[in-house]
Amino acid sequence: MRKFVLAAALLLAGALIGGAPAKAEVGCLCATAFKAPVCTNTILTCNTKLGGACVAPCDYMKPKMSKRHSKKKKM
Length: 75
What we know:
By secondary structure, the chain is an alpha+beta fold.
């Protein structure tokens, strides 16, 4: 019985200590008429910029910066 309790304690400790922090922020699922729902960072962004209503919370991830690719020059 001790082995079972010890194994359960070690698994629980490993799950709590080894967990990675969440990288996504809580956002707002913005629904507008005749458009697909979009996840925005705040309720105000949904209401003012998109003219929609916040329906449910979602995991908002900031858009990644696009890399600028250089073009080869013609001679």
